[in-house]
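Justification of resources, computational component.

The compute hours requested in this renewal are based largely on the per-chain cost of generating structure records like the one below. Each record pairs the submitted sequence with a full structure-token output. That output is archived, and it is also reused by downstream analysis tasks.
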Amino acid sequence: QVQLVESGGGLVQPGGSLRLSCAASGLLFSRYAMSWYRQAPGKERELLATVSSTGGTTSYKDTVKGRFTISRDNAKSTVSLRMNSLKPEDTAVYLCHVRQLGYWGQGTQVTVSS
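The structure output for this chain reads:
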């Protein structure tokens, strides 16, 4: 059974940083591209970043490019999202996703507020 477990969310002040992690199990992690999404209340879920199976290729939504960095550790079956210069509009539930298999984690809440 595939499981994705996110962690690292919390309350942070504007301009601050957080590092989210997603631990995967039940799949051959190194075979799949991984993505981070977020969903704010009343808004559609949006794709933020994707990393290829090897970690060699990444892509980002324009609004987070330069502030967020996605990375993965295939030896540990984890994918991370480093978020810098956080803004109140980054407040959302952040979820990791295996696009090829359709699995989602339960999400971790990020709140950016002073």
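The chain has a mean pLDDT of 97. The CA atoms of residues 2 and 26 lie 4 Å apart.
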